[in-house]
Design goal:
Blueprint: E1 10-14, E2 17-20, E3 25-28, H1 31-34, H2 43-53, H3 67-79, E4 85-89, H4 92-107, E5 114-118, H5 127-132, H6 136-139, E6 149-152, H7 157-163, E7 168-173, E8 176-177, E9 183-184, H8 187-200, E10 203-207, E11 231-234, E12 245-249, H9 270-285, H10 288-309, E13 314-320, E14 323-328, H11 333-342, E15 344-345, E16 347-349, E17 353-356, H12 364-388
Parallel strand pairs: 3-15, 5-6, 5-7, 7-10, 10-11
Antiparallel strand pairs: 1-2, 2-3, 4-12, 8-9, 11-12, 13-14, 14-17, 16-17
Helix pairs in contact: 2-9, 3-9, 10-12, 11-12
Amino acid sequence: MPTYAPGVALVEGSGTTVWDAEGKEYLDFVSGIAVVNIGHCHPKMVHAIQDQVETLVHVSNLFYNEKQPLLARALSERSGLPGAKCFFCNSGAEANEGLIKLARLWGSEHGKYEIVTMRQSFHGRTLATLTATGQEKVQKGFGPLPDGFVYATFNDLESIEDAITSKTAAVLVEALQGEGGVIPAEPEFLSGLRKLCDEKGILLLCDEVQCGMGRTGKWFGFQNYDVVPDAFSLAKGLGNGFPIGAVVAGQKLSDIFQPGHHATTFGGTPLACSAALAVIDVIEEEELLANTMVMSAYFIEGLCEIAMKHKKWISGVRGLGLLLGLVLDVPAAPLQKKLLEKGMLSLATAGNVLRLLPPLNVSQKEVDQALRLLGEACLELHEESAALSPNPCQCGMGQ
């Protein structure tokens, strides 16, 4: 079905490089949309999957498998949530559905079911998660939408407080709005939100689907703010391309789900858990959290130099770790297309933001290559706009 409009067929990948069906090489700064955090076809993950395929692939959750509790322990220990337990599923949308159901079940005894989410957020494409997503363009045509979601303004505590009522069960928030334009939470916002939720007796839930698994330089995005949520969702980078999602819940919520409340056929298979355990091992053994912060600082410096050279149409740079956005005053799609022609993959998001998501083990040489291609693309767009107009500033690309 034509739900996407892909222009290139990719057939092979290694590290930060992918090749298309014609053999053309690309520098991949999309990483499967923040999924391939340890690069394409990392040997340790390849071997983990191969070994597990030869041992046991699937038994269902009617039985234990030895890899699932190992992964649950690994995530719980790194989460900072006291007494944390995990529910495993297959995707970010499923993980966020799990968070929503968990919050509703927790609040059901007292008539609390509403979830406050942020405008310009993104939480998935199921009916519940697209309703939680605070973007009308995602919801259009799918009504009537499920009841129970209220929208507030990101980075505005007063807006959230105004949205909370006696029916509110939880606030669901991203540490950084990726799809919304690569907008990080302000330093005081998440800590203030934690305090507000405690005062109101409601839950703080974090969507870590895109920010989690080292993408921001910490295991989880909320850890940049020294905040501990009541529960959070994971997917994307957890399996480095093998589908797996998770709900990680602290002590307040860890035993709310009981048999019959929630289920999944494929969640937490031995194969999926083996892939995720390999991802965690690689991040630690190769010190990728530290590399993320070093490469982030280096990349941001280079992006800021490009922004200064084209300050008439590039506003600046924002993001955390290796989830970065080049903010334009013009649509980002032409720049994305120009980079694709030059052999670099990037993402246009929120209309005017070029989102850049290299693997966490990206090298300085690869960042330099990306900066060179970006510089060339920006210069060519400027020259093309100048040729079309006597005054380049009229079309937003004057230097």
